[in-house]
Amino acid sequence: MKLVIVTGMPGAGKSGVAQAFHDAGIPVIVMGDVIREETRKRGLEPNPANTKKVMLELRETKGAGAIALFCMNELKKLESEIIVIEGCRSIAEIDVFDDCADSVVIVCVHASPKERYKRLRERNREDAPPSWEVFRERDIREISVGLGGVIALSDIMLVNEGTIFEFQEQSKELVKRLT
Asked: What's the rounded Cα separation, in Å, for the pair 7 and 150?
């Protein structure tokens, strides 16, 4: 099995890349959904403060690869030669996935902080940052759990600073290249 791991800072466009793979019939597991679901299971609203608390607690109690371990149950159910993992944030998570795959390709999506903040506010999800300060704090937290290392070790870098159409086309090209 080949795993395509899509990484990047919040709001960079990871879900756009994952959607292109999904549209091509390739299964996608979203790591952020694990944290949001675990937050809901604990009876908490999945807002920035609560998802932060749950993410850090899971990593503290179960190790740096905790979120990847949660994803393994879903991964084992899938029968596909290629599977996409969206939202990997640490080398420890990469190691968990690497242990179960024949090959791993890390794709990083990059966009500037100002563009990412704008996108996060516009998509209006439950965990959207209410202010620039909360956004910056989240960026620093993401880097502190190891996201910078995953970005640095990426095999492919997509820059997402143009229109949504341009990025969709770029993502479709990536799917063709990797499948």
From this structure: 7
Q: Cα torsion at 59, 107, 3, 100 (round to 10°)?
A: -40
Element (H, E) at 46: none
> Rounded distance, CA 163 to CA 97, Å?
32
pLDDT per residue over 33-59, tens digit each?
888 899 999 999 988 789 889 988 998
Class level of CATH domain 2-170: alpha beta
pLDDT of residue 159: 97
Residue (of 142, 96, 143, 139) closest to 117 by Cα position = 139
Distance from C-alpha of 118 to C-alpha of 23, rounded to nearest angstrom = 25
What's the length of the chain? 179
Residue reference for tokens 């084992």: 76
Structure tokens at 166: 């341009």
- For the chain, give every domain's residue range: 2-170
Decide if 58 contacts 66 (C-beta within 8 A): yes
